Amino acid sequence: MPTTHLKLSRDSFGRLLMTDLRAVEEVVTPVRAFPLAAPSEGISLVGSDGHERRWIPHLDELDEASRELIRTELDSRDMIPEIRRIVAVSTFSTPSHWTVETDRGPTNLLLRSEDDLRRLPDNGLLVASGQGPHFLIKDRNALDKPSRKILDRFL
């Protein structure tokens, strides 16, 4: 049941607009407080000056149309590729070069140490690559058996 009174829409340029109770429209950007641990909780709507305009404790408090607008906006900005399969590793000790398949295509990464694998809720992992980018494994139990077997050697 939506409890937060909030009107969201898009302007002619596709930007997200928030209309407050006084009917004042403002371009806002949604920002997750906990993008990996709680992606549906703690959403801040930030104005063009960088100041928070509205805090949304949980997306379920919004109507379906507003939830979808915020999810679409957040999804377009998320830059963490999701690992779908571990194809190969150069060695089972670190440093190790990994060949993986992600939701954005195949790539290679460098795992410098076991500390580069950070556990997340719901069996998730954040993989920090030695080359800079981070990768996400949403649920390591959902990986195929060979990928889980490789991953277990590092955990």
Largest sheet: 5 strands, antiparallel
List how many beta strands DSSP finds.
11
Name the structural class. alpha+beta
Q: What is the helix tally?
A: 2
Uncertain segments are none
Question: What is the rounded Rg?
Answer: 19 Å
What topology, given as strand order, has the largest sheet?
Answer: 1-2-3-4-5
Which outline best applies? Answer: elongated
Q: How would you state the average pLDDT, rounded?
A: 90
Portion of residues within helices: 10-25%
Q: What is the H/E order?
A: EEEEEHEEEEEEH
First-to-last CA distance: 41 Å
Give the domain tally: 2
Q: What share of the residues does DSSP label as strand, in percent? A: 35-45%
Pfam families: DUF1854 (PF08909)
Organism: Xylophilus rhododendri
Protein name: DUF1854 domain-containing protein
3D structure, described in words:
This protein has 155 residues and is α+β, with helices and mostly antiparallel strands. It has helices spanning 64-77, 145-154; strands at 7-10, 16-19, 25-32, 41-47, 52-58, 83-89, 96-102, 105-111, 117-120, 124-128, 134-137. The strands form three sheets. Strands 1-2-3-4-5 form a five-stranded antiparallel beta sheet, covered by helices on one side. A three-stranded antiparallel beta sheet has the order 6-7-8. A three-stranded antiparallel beta sheet has the order 9-10-11, with no helix packed on it. Strand 4 and strand 5 (52-58) form a beta hairpin. The longest helix is centred in the middle third of the chain and has 14 residues, at 64-77. The protein is elongated, with a radius of gyration of 19 Å. It starts with 6 loop residues before the first strand and ends with a helix. The model has no long low-confidence stretch (mean pLDDT 90). This is DUF1854 domain-containing protein. Residues 27-154 form the DUF1854 domain. It comes from Xylophilus rhododendri.
